[in-house]
Specification:
alpha/beta, Rossmann fold, seven-stranded mixed β-sheet, 19 helices, 17 strands, about 20% strand, elongated
């Protein structure tokens, strides 16, 4: 091996890389270049020998001091042409011969190459031709990922699919700093980092503990048709969630103020102490939140003055974003106070409804089981799509809840079947029946779950809440 080549490897001499190991790395380079003539192992831009040595071999080798030597296995996610897995396996022959490197790769041809290299260089590897996202309860020491998937996907994969691991090593490219900073908004990470040996703008992350932060979710309960059980759903979902220890904030965005009175507060108080005061810039959110008489359940009230907001903001080109801006400012100061914010929307596709949808992570649609309800839902879906395209790309449909269901009425069954055929699993299994107790409870200023917890309406809302929480848990584990 000439001095020029040795000079390349001098960058990793502090990793106890021997001359014999350097010779094996050179053999690997030759095999990569030869195989690259047949299949795409590495990019054509980096297929010169010096470029392979610098961009792939040394770049991969620099993580060796982060590999947990107390473990018997190390796992390379989506190893591709063997970087960094094969390089680590070569170096481990001297550092810890018993260390097995698991190489996950879906491509058949790349798996054949990985096995050929492993056999020729006598490496302690296991080539696993499986989709790692479909495997569970994986146990390993170190997890490595280089140019496989974006950082958030890797973090989710490790949390969900690995039963045991020691640390995660990630290669972060020239845009890695922003990606990393964004990830820190959602994840609690115990990590160390070091500058890349091969690129001044890149760095290596060694993450030892990964925990997803508890993030609040904003859900709009919406239907442009009135009298479908929308406010009833807000009140009782909020109540049921609060009874399970979830901290809930209800925002009454309907000028009628029915959610306000339904939770026992007045809808005739001063306007600056309501959601109207927030949206016209008079008050901040934290100053108008009111406690209800129900534990874990707070409310921002509404009154009829809110109906004038659309005219008052006619000259504001950004008026659709007013509520979102106020919520964002509040959340930046008060992260984690609530598990959910539930927004009770007015029965129309007005500015207030658009404000709610722009501000929300998802929406829930109560659907009355009658013929005209399905026609109105079609119009609503078109509005939602326009909002997603132009104003809030992250908006998702949480689900559709069938309300005012009458089992004696054949039409209810027909509407239910049509809704399930069209919207599939977006329709909750629970249906809310017609029940006089549901109508009586608001006049007493309490949710039906408090008014009569044993009536059919209460039992249905408890069942719906269980289904809602189960759905949330699935969304959280898939995120």
């Amino acid at each position: 091996m000439d001095n020029v080549i040795l000079d390349y490897y001098s960058k990793i001499t502090n990793l106890n890389v021997s001359r014999e190991t350097c010779n094996e790395l050179e053999s690997l380079i030759s095999m990569i270049l030869e195989k690259n003539k047949q299949i795409n192992i590495i990019s054509k831009k980096t297929c010169e020998k010096d470029a392979v040595r610098e961009r792939h071999i040394i770049d991969s080798a620099q993580i060796v001091d982060f590999v947990d030597l107390n473990s018997d296995t190390t796992t390379d996610l989506g190893t591709g042409g063997g970087m960094p897995g094969l390089i680590v396996a070569i170096i481990m022959k001297k550092l810890k011969k018993s260390m097995k490197i698991n190489l996950y790769e879906k491509s058949y041809h790349k798996c054949v190459f990985l096995k050929e290299v492993s056999k020729k260089l006598k490496l302690n590897t296991e080539v696993i031709q499986k989709d790692i996202f479909k495997l569970n309860n994986i146990e390993t020491g170190t997890v490595m990922s280089r140019a496989f998937k974006p950082m958030p996907i890797i973090l989710n994969l490790v949390c969900q699919n690995f039963k045991k691991y020691k640390n995660v090593i990630l290669f972060m490219g020239d845009k890695g700093r922003k990606i990393f900073n964004d990830a820190l908004q959602e994840w609690e990470l115990d990590y160390e980092e070091k500058k890349s040996l091969t690129n001044n703008d890149s760095f290596i992350l060694n993450i030892k503990n990964i925990k997803k932060k508890k993030l609040m979710k904003i859900i709009s309960i919406i239907n442009q048709k009135g009298g479908v059980g929308k406010t009833t759903t807000v009140i009782n979902l909020a109540s049921a969630l609060s009874q399970q220890g979830k901290k809930i904030l209800v925002i009454d965005l309907d000028p009628q103020g029915n959610a306000t009175t339904g939770l026992g507060l007045s809808n005739t108080e001063q306007s600056d102490q309501t959601i109207y005061g927030i949206l016209n810039g008079t008050m901040s959110i934290s100053n108008v939140i009111k406690k209800t008489k129900f534990e874990n359940l707070d409310l921002i009230t509404s009154n009829v003055d809110l109906s004038g907001l659309e005219v008052e903001t006619a000259g504001d080109n950004d008026r659709a974003f007013i509520l979102k801006a106020k919520l964002t400012a509040y959340l930046n100061d008060s992260r984690g106070i609530y598990d959910y914010i539930l927004i009770d929307c007015p029965p129309s596709l007005s500015l207030l409804t658009v404000m709610a949808l722009v501000s929300s992570n998802s929406l829930l649609v109560p659907l009355q089981t009658e013929f005209f309800a399905l026609e109105g839902l079609t119009q609503l879906m078109k509005t939602i799509e326009r909002i997603k395209v132009n104003l809030n790309p992250q908006l998702e449909i949480q689900g559709i809840l069938l309300t005012m269901y009458d089992r004696r009425n054949k039409l209810s069954s027909q509407v239910e079947q049509e809704a399930r055929d069209y919207f599939k699993d977006k329709v909750y299994q629970t249906v809310i029946p017609r029940n006089v107790r549901l109508s009586e409870a608001p006049s007493h200023g309490v949710p039906v779950l408090i008014y009569d917890k044993n009536c059919p309406g209460s039992k249905s809302y408890y069942s719906f809440t269980d289904e809602f929480i189960s759905q949330e848990n699935k969304i959280g584990s898939a995120a």
